[in-house]
Each structure stands twice: as structure tokens, then as C-alpha cells.
Backbone:
């Protein structure tokens, strides 16, 4: 993977991820559930 491709992928992730969390309730709920499962299993 070239540096330009990597930077483009990172930039797209930085833009798409927060928008998905803000505007798609299913994505936000799934992420929250997975985070809670991870934290409760490692506590």
C-alpha cells in the first residue's frame, strides 16, 4: 500500500466514522454494545 493510498484511507475513515456514529442509530448502538461487552469482560 502506498503512502498516498494509506493517507486517503485514513482521511476517509476520519470523515465517515463520526458521521456514521452521529446519523445512523444502528451503527451507534452496535458500537456502544460492543464497547460495553469488551469493557465488562475485561473488568
Residues:
Amino acid at each position: 500500500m502506498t503512502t498516498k493510498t494509506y493517507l486517503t484511507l485514513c482521511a476517509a475513515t476520519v470523515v465517515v466514522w463520526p458521521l456514521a456514529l452521529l446519523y445512523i442509530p444502528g451503527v451507534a448502538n452496535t458500537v456502544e454494545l460492543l464497547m460495553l461487552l469488551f469493557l465488562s469482560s475485561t473488568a
Notes: The radius of gyration is 14 Å. Residues 3-23 form the longest helix (21 residues). The chain has a mean pLDDT of 95. Helices lie at 3-23, 25-42.
